[in-house]
Design a protein that fits this description.
- The protein has 383 residues and is mostly beta strands.
- The chain has a domain at 201-383: Alpha-Beta Horseshoe (Leucine-rich repeat, LRR (right-handed beta-alpha superhelix)).
- The chain is 4% helix and 24% strand.
- It has one helix at 3-16, and strands at 48-49, 52-55, 58-61, 71-73, 80-81, 95-97, 102-105, 119-121, 126-129, 143-145, 150-153, 167-169, 174-178, 190-192, 197-200, 214-216, 221-222, 238-240, 247-249, 262-264, 269-272, 286-288, 293-294, 310-312, 319-320, 334-336, 341-344, 358-360, 365-366.
- The strands form five sheets. The protein has a 14-stranded mixed sheet with strand order 1-4-6-8-10-12-14-16-18-20-22-24-26-28, with no helix packed on it.
- The longest helix has 14 residues, at 3-16.
- The protein is elongated, with a radius of gyration of 26 Å.
- The termini are far apart.
- It comes from Asterionellopsis glacialis.
- It holds the Pfam family LRR_1.
- This is L domain-like protein.
Length: 383
């Protein structure tokens, strides 16, 4: 791709499609636009990256007018307008980052002509319509983030066959239907499907994507329960399944998920006992179980959660005295166990939770007096 091709078929088009922009550099309304539409080589323009070449044994940026553009990064730059179809002129582009702008319109099918593309960031814009099938032609794609737009419809099969994908972000859109098939995505580590309109159950095959580190399917219309096959996700660090309509018992599968740091299952309809195996999650920092229908008591095994910072168990049906396991959670900052069926007295040992900032216990059947030792909690802000 020559400088003139790129200028006439891509850069001009992006600029002209932006609101209130003219050819004069002084009129470009982006936050950062150094050298754009100037006589400087395209590789000198803000956000444009060209290959680094060796000249007389020294690595130097290559500013020749025939240089290939390998990266276009205009993130968080107040860019408006639509994505020009002439984007395909940048045939050696490896990274396209237009995230966090005000770009509207649809995703042009011509993006599928960027055969070298490895990273695509279009998240946090105003894009609408369907994801074009042609994106599946970008066989080297590793990271694709389309979240926080107005996209809808089904996820194209061609996207789900991009075997090199490591991260797929489709969150905060209007995608619907059943959850996508992940059987081809053997290297997937990050999957964001949250805040969409997906229905049905979690496919058991999700448990076979053993590379998953971060899985978020919160805020959909999913039902059923967590597949037992999730026990195979031994690399999982973040699991968000909250704000769906899951029911039944939460399976006791956490023995093998020892890397979990964040577990959020709130706002569902889970019933039955709390899984004792959660107590094996020594690295767990955030545990949100509130707004379910659990029964029984907090397992004593949870006393191993010594690094837990936030524990939400409010508005469930948990019974018994104040959970002794909580007294071992010395890193707790936020503890919410209000509106349950607990009874008895509040223990004096609460004062040993030195990091507590927020403590909510109302709406239970506790009796007796408030321990004077709570006055020793110097960080406590709300009780």
């Amino acid at each position: 791709t020559t400088y003139k091709d790129a200028e006439s078929h891509n850069v001009d088009e992006i600029v002209e499609n932006a609101d209130d922009l003219e050819d004069d550099d002084d009129d470009i309304m982006w936050d950062y636009h150094d050298n754009w539409m100037s006589e400087s080589g395209i590789c000198m323009w803000w956000g444009v990256i060209c290959p680094t070449r060796v000249h007389e044994g020294v690595m130097t940026d290559y500013y020749d007018e025939n240089a290939d553009v390998i990266k276009l990064n205009l993130t968080l730059n107040n860019v408006r307008g639509s994505i020009p179809r002439e984007i395909m002129a940048l045939e050696n582009l490896e990274t396209l980052d237009l995230s966090r702008n005000h770009i509207s319109g649809t995703i042009p099918s011509e993006i599928g002509g960027l055969m070298e593309l490895e990273e695509l960031y279009l998240n946090w814009n105003k894009l609408e319509g369907n994801v074009p099938e042609e994106i599946g032609n970008c066989e080297d794609m590793r990271d694709m983030h389309l979240g926080s737009n107005f996209l809808r419809g089904a996820i194209p099969d061609s996207v789900l066959e991009l075997r090199e994908l490591r991260a797929l972000g489709l969150d905060e859109n209007y995608f619907g239907g059943p959850l996508p098939d992940l059987s081809y995505l053997k290297h997937l580590m990050i999957l964001y499907l949250d805040d969409n309109q997906f229905t049905g159950e979690i496919p058991p095959d999700y448990g076979q994507v053993s590379t998953l580190i971060d899985l978020r399917i919160r805020k959909n219309f999913l039902r059923g329960t967590v597949p037992a096959e999730f026990a195979s996700l031994s690399h999982l660090e973040i699991l968000f399944i909250d704000d769906n309509t899951f029911s039944g018992t939460l399976p006791d599968i956490f023995d093998s998920l020892v890397r979990l740091r964040e577990l959020e299952v709130y706002k569902n309809a889970f019933t039955g006992a709390l899984p004792p195996s959660i107590g094996n999650l020594a690295d767990l920092r955030y545990l949100y179980l509130d707004n379910n229908q659990f029964t029984g008591t907090v397992p004593e095994a949870w006393s191993n959660l010594r690094d837990l910072k936030e524990f939400y168990l409010y508005e469930t049906n948990v019974t018994g005295p104040f959970p002794e396991a909580i007294l071992s959670m010395k890193a707790l900052r936020d503890l919410r166990i209000e509106y349950n069926e607990m009874s008895g007295t509040l223990p004096e040992q609460l004062s040993e939770l030195y990091e507590l900032e927020h403590l909510y216990v109302e709406g239970n059947y506790f009796n007796g007096t408030i321990p004077n030792s709570l006055g020793d909690l110097i960080h406590l802000q709300e009780f």
